[in-house]
């Protein structure tokens, strides 16, 4: 392959990678569940019943060098995820509820009986609208240092953030 062909291919790949996605600058971080206080920023779109989202939650739980801005984007394939997200966003200690849900502690509970508030429902709906506007249709999806990572790919995350 010629060098010119390879450069054209790289440019096309970059255009495809960047099309249809929002940048972190266009996302209202005030609507996110904020976890942590570290200097590195991670924007995360997650589903409480997604097994890969749960692996990411466990990984990030021990990192003290990041601040996570979590947006719930429950997928249709997970019928209980919306209720779980609303439950988290309805609670007083949202971070604790997030960890309980993402660790599976709530899985055996009847999601119809989870206490939710009108504010929690509204917050979840706003977060999902933000995900839709940003073109996010899979979970987990991360925005880290201007890059978008779809799926929990620890090596790519650590390439950007460094190892814990």
From TrEMBL:
Residues 1-24 form the signal peptide. InterPro entries: Thiol:disulfide_interchange, Thioredoxin-like_fold, Thioredoxin-like_sf. The keyword Signal applies. Residues 36-154 form the Thioredoxin-like fold domain. GO terms for molecular function: isomerase activity. It comes from the Bacteria. Keywords: Isomerase, Signal. Pfam families: Thioredoxin_2. This is Protein-disulfide isomerase. It comes from Trichlorobacter lovleyi (strain ATCC BAA-1151 / DSM 17278 / SZ).
């Amino acid at each position: 392959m010629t060098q010119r062909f390879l450069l054209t291919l790289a440019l096309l790949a970059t255009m495809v990678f960047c099309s249809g996605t929002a940048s972190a600058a266009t996302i209202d971080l005030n609507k996110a569940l904020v976890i942590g206080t570290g200097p590195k920023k991670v924007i995360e779109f997650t589903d409480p019943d997604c097994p890969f989202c749960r692996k990411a939650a466990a990984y990030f739980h021990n990192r003290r060098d990041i601040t996570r801005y979590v947006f719930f984007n429950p997928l249709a394939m997970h019928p209980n995820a919306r209720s779980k997200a609303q439950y988290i966003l309805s609670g007083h200690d949202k971070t604790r509820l997030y960890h309980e849900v993402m660790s599976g502690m709530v899985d055996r509970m009847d999601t119809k009986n989870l206490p939710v508030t009108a504010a929690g429902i509204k917050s979840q709906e706003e977060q999902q609208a933000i995900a839709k506007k940003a073109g996010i249709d899979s979970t987990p999806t991360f925005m880290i240092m201007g890059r978008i990572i779809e799926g929990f790919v620890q090596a790519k995350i650590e390439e950007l953030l460094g190892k814990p």
